[in-house]
Amino acid sequence: MYEALIRFLRQFISEKAAQIGALTTELERLIEYKSAWANFKRSAEGTDGMFSYLNKHWIA
């Protein structure tokens, strides 16, 4: 599961970076980056909670 998550994140981040880089103005890039970072941070916190639960109840 860990390896699949790593592959997904690498591809997602690469695509998001290309999408942000294609924007025409610095302001557009900054706004999109801020939004993407907030979403990424929220998702990372949820993923951390999920893996913590799995480690506590199923693996350890």
UniProtKB/TrEMBL annotation:
Protein species of origin: Steinernema glaseri
Protein name per the record: Transposase
Domain of life where this protein originates: Eukaryota
Record-linked InterPro entries: Cullin_repeat-like_dom_sf
